[in-house]
Known about the structure:
The complex is a heterodimer of chains A (324) and B (258).
Chain A: E1 9-17, E2 23-32, E3 37-41, H1 48-55, E4 63-68, E5 71-72, H2 77-82, E6 84-87, H3 99-109, H4 114-127, H5 143-154, E7 161-165, H6 173-188, E8 192-196, H7 200-206, E9 209-214, E10 217-223, H8 224-229, E11 233-240, E12 253-259, E13 262-268, H9 274-282, E14 287-292, H10 296-323
Parallel strand pairs in A: 3-8, 3-9, 6-7, 7-8
Antiparallel strand pairs in A: 1-2, 1-4, 4-5, 9-10, 11-13, 11-14, 12-13
Chain B: H1 3-23, H2 25-28, H3 30-51, E1 53-54, E2 58-59, H4 60-90, H5 94-98, H6 104-130, H7 141-165, H8 169-185, H9 200-204, H10 208-221, H11 228-252
Antiparallel strand pairs in B: 1-2
Helix pairs in contact in B: 1-6, 3-4, 3-6, 4-6, 4-7, 4-8, 4-10, 6-7, 7-10, 7-11, 10-11
GO molecular function (chain A): ATP binding
Domain ABC transporter (chain A): 9-240
Pfam families (chain A): ABC_tran
Amino acid sequence: MSPTSPPALVVENLRKTYSNGVEALKGVSLTVQPGDFFALLGPNGAGKSTLIGILSSLVNASSGDAQVFGVSVNKQRGKAMQLIGLVPQEINFNQFEKPFDICVNEAGFYGIPRKIAIERAEKYLKELRLWDKAQHQARMLSGGMKRRLMIARAMMNEPKLLILDEPTAGVDIEIRRSMWQFVSGINAAGTTVILTTHYLEEAEQLCRNIAIIDHGTIVENTSMKRLLATLDVETFVLDINQAPTELPVIPGISLRRLDEHTVEAEMSRSHDLNSLFAALSAQGMTVTSMRNKTNRLEELFVRLVEHGRTEQGRSAKGNEEKVA
Amino acid sequence: MNSTGNLVALNTIVRREIVRIMRIWTQTLIPPAITMTLYFVIFGKLIGSRIGTIEGGFTYMQYIVPGLVMMSIITNSYGNISSSFFGAKFSRAVEEMLVSPMPNWVILLGYVTGAVTRGVIVGALVLIIALFFTHLHVVHPLITLASVILGATIFSLAGFVNAVYAKKFDDIALVPTFVLTPLTYLGGVFYSVSMLGEPWRTISMVNPILYMVNAFRFGVLGVSDVQIGVAFTVMLAFVIGLAIVALQLLKRGVGLRS
Lengths: 324, 258
């Protein structure tokens, strides 16, 4: 990517208020660089799907604009849509059509000649391991296959920006991994990827940059590495041969007995684990295994969202007081 | 998208619509053929033989054939587009087109072409069946063809508007039941409006289907209750008006975009 090439996505002060008065986006701004693997996270109803809807022109913004590789979604919709591939959250293809036809027709909607469309349909259906189902009715496919079909369909115009809105929801671990392998390959080949997911370990493993949205506002927008570095506390679950009723007191570590064989230890990241093991060992306890209690990103996500809500609550209370 | 791209997109929608019509041919092509055969047997043969000749010296069977063919064309064009586009809305498959770079007019033209195609296929089938019951000589082939295309286009556009507004399948059944069928039966399919007394004759003149049926009848038999120039003017006005409405709905995203 040349240093002068425009960002893959620039969102400027995007607002959306639905006709029922719900303010889904309250001035969202963010930038995604070309080639990035970008996570857009947020709880249900945070505004993720509205933002993606505006980027894909399914939702009309109330104000603000978005540019895809420098092309305005508002002013040059057709040109901007040529650059985007969308994998939506809900299944949105005709279930009575065949996967092959769904892909070829999708290419046709982008003005891609049928001969090329047929070649691409074969390529992507094979890459997503759907070729043996290409001539079956789509309704006969399993949930995971339908999700992979939507990825294959989104690749038909070979987009520069691929947007995946919770593509692995309800998909088993094996298929999920194969999907990520495919998307990682696409990203490595130069396609910018924006991902929303509720599986935060996926975002942690795959994405380089992240934005967290809550109540229509971006509450965090940084690199994954920098965000994870801010997490100063970790919780471990230790499997122990026999946990006594009275646990040792270790400075800087909070211990909690879960059952007779399991103990939870919450400690600062700067604290070494040796003192923990030494103290447990001194009590005659043998640690047989240990694991992180939660995904690190999950821990941060909950904190950021809760913090944002506390701030909003304070602000709302302040406004009420002003009104009163 | 450039003009070649638009043509590819248009071709894709039309092809998909025709594949759909052929895939469910037992629902799209056979029922109207059976219904019209019954009309020919009951009204044309059994009752018509007792009526004798009607306007212009034609047998009653010859007189109702153009009306019944046009009735098949408009109801099938309407039914095709309303069920196909609403089905795409209902299954959200319409989003495939809405997120693509296709301009709105390509989407509209594609669906209308698909619906007109079904109307023409059904019309041709009904005409072939009619030839088993009577003989026909098409007097004005170009007028016949033009009235078929315009009539089918008008009701395709109307069906599209209906599908855009529809929120459930019942909504696309309401208009054919309460508007389309009464207008068709009162549009001179089975009788000449000259047979009506006032004020029914004047009231009939505001029924757009009357102009379509009579334009087609003029093309086939050479007789009409209305001036052929007026009939084509009315039909063209409906095509333009409904196309503007449909394009505006697509532009505003009514029922399609949030």
